[in-house]
Amino acid sequence: MALRGPHLLGIEPLAPGEITAILDLAETYVTLNRQPDKHGDALAGLTQINMFFEASTRTQASFEIAGKRLGADVMNMGVAASSVKKGETLIDTAMTLNAMHPDLLVVRHPHSGAVNLLAEKVTCSVLNAGDGRHEHPTQALLDALTIRRAKGRLHRLTVAICGDIAHSRVARSNILLLGRMESRVRLVGPPTLIPAGAAEWGVEVTDRMEEGLDGADVVMMLRLQKERMDGGFIPSEREYYHRFGLDAEKLALAKPDAIVMHPGPMNRGVEIDGTLADDINRSVIQDQVEMGVAVRMAAMDLLARARKARPREVMA
Q1: What's the half-sphere exposure (Cβ side, CA atoms, 13 Å) at 19?
Q2: How does 223-243 read in b/e, with b if 16+ C-beta sit within 10 Å?
Q3: 16 φ, ψ to 5°?
Q4: At CB < 8 A and 24+ separation, what contacts does 77-82 make?
Q5: Who has greater pLDDT, 249 or 312?
Q6: Nearest to 254 by CA among 152, 161, 116
Q7: pLDDT tens figures, 83-117
Q8: pLDDT of the residue at 1
Q9: Which alpha helices (H) appear in 36-89, and where do they start and end?
Q10: What is the pTM assigned to this prediction?
C-alpha cells in the first residue's frame, strides 16, 4: 500500500486504489484502537505539528490522538498567539517550519488553497485538515470508512447530502470520493445553499427533501455554517428545520436500512432531530468520530512510509 504523492491535500488527486488502501489500513487501526494497548510505532521518531488557523476541537483532537498512538512527537502550534497574527506571511511560516525539520504538518486554514501553498514551500509531508470551502479529505475518508463498514461496500449506493452545500468543504470532498467510487450522489438544500453549476458535477440536485431522500442508502446532513454566511441564506432556523431538517418522517422516505450521518458539530433541532441523531439503530454519527482517528492514523502512516522511501527534499 502506498500513496503516490508526498502530501494529502485533497480527494481530487487520489486514485480509487489509493482511497481503498487508506480505508483498508484504517480498518487495522480500528482494531488497534479497541485494544487495551492502543499504541503502534509507525511514526516513532517523527515529529508532527498541528497548525489550526481555524478552531476545531474535534478534528485537532483526532489528529493529535492519531499521531500519539503511532508514536509521533506531537506539537500543537497556537496560531492565535503566534507571529502569523502579527503579520507573518505563510511563506515566512513555511521557512520557520523548515528550520524545525518536522516530518508531518497538519493544517487547517480559513482560505481555500492556503494549505496547498504551504505544501509547496515546506520540506515535510502536509495533511489538509480543511481549507476554506475547498476540501476536507480526511473527513470524506472517515465518512467512506463509516459507510463501507455499515453497508459492506462503497459502490452503487445512493447518498443524499443535505443542507449547506455552498459553504461545505466536507460536501465537496465527499462528492469527489463517492463519485470516484461509483456511487450516486444527490445534493439536497435550498437554492441559496446550492453552489452555482452544481448540476455539472455529475450529481443530482433538488430543493425537495422528498425527492432527495427517496430510496437513499445514506443520508448525510451538513452543518449550517453561519460563520461563512454574509447574507440571508435562510428565512429562519425554524423554517429551515421544517423544510430541510431531518426527522423521522423525512427519514421514512429513505430505505428502511438507511444510515444517518453528520460531520459535527450538530445544531440539534435545526439540521437534525436530536432523538434521531442519538438513535443507535439509524445514526452512525458516533461511529464517524471513531473512524476519524483510525483514518488519520492510516493517512499519516502511509505518508510516513512514502517519506522514508524518498530522500528529504531541500527547499531551493
Answers
A1: 28
A2: bbbeeeeeeebbeeeeebbee
A3: -55, -35
A4: 77/49, 77/50, 77/51, 79/51, 79/52, 79/53
A5: 249
A6: 161
A7: 666 667 888 888 989 999 999 999 999 999 999 99
A8: 67
A9: 57-69
A10: 0.94
